Amino acid sequence: MNNKPDIREKALKFGLGYPLDYELVxxxxxxxxxxxxxxxxxxxxxDVLDSGNNDDMVERLNKMKGIGQSKxxxxxxxxxxxxxxxxxxxAHISTPCDVIPFVNHYAMSGKEHFLAVTLNGGHNIIQIHxxxxxxxxxxxxxxxxxxxxxxxxxxSAILVCHNHPSGSVEPSDxxxxxxxxxxxxxxxxxxxxxxxxxxxxxxxxxxxESGLLKKLx
Length: 217
Prior knowledge:
Radius of gyration: 21 Å
Largest sheet: 5 strands, mixed
Number of helices: 10
Shape: elongated
Distance between the termini: 62 Å
Oligomer: single chain
Number of strands: 5
Strand content: 15-25%
């Protein structure tokens, strides 16, 4: 049985906040099988999700009759993606390393991603924005792109971060000059940049902790 068209239409019209949990699962699965309709399967999956934690989710879903490994992995992947995209919301940042768990998945990318982490007055994360995606060893960033979302969100401060696919977290001359330009712009706009963090898969470099940020102000 195929996914109900009205659920797709409602999601497109009203947004993904409209469908019920099992209807969201129906959108993920797309279709059921001969043993079970997609609606019945989705309701059973939600029951499984509500009955335990995420650590053994795939194993528990695989035990369901008619689900199969591919559908179990599709649901688990959707849950993991949602967690990655929302787990940072409201998190308090008191030191540079506090932000690392929320951005370290970008360290695995083969291209540089430049991120702007907007913070409220209590230094809690408002949102993490991908400002620019570059090549394997560089990315171009303009101050207006970094501060655009911060102004919209009425942020009190910003952390900027980017990954180094090369495997070294030492800042390049371009990284230092980029940071200098962003600091100059922050003085005019009135939203301070608290740090610039460079990450790879194993470590990070903090302009603040190294003392370089203060030299550039």
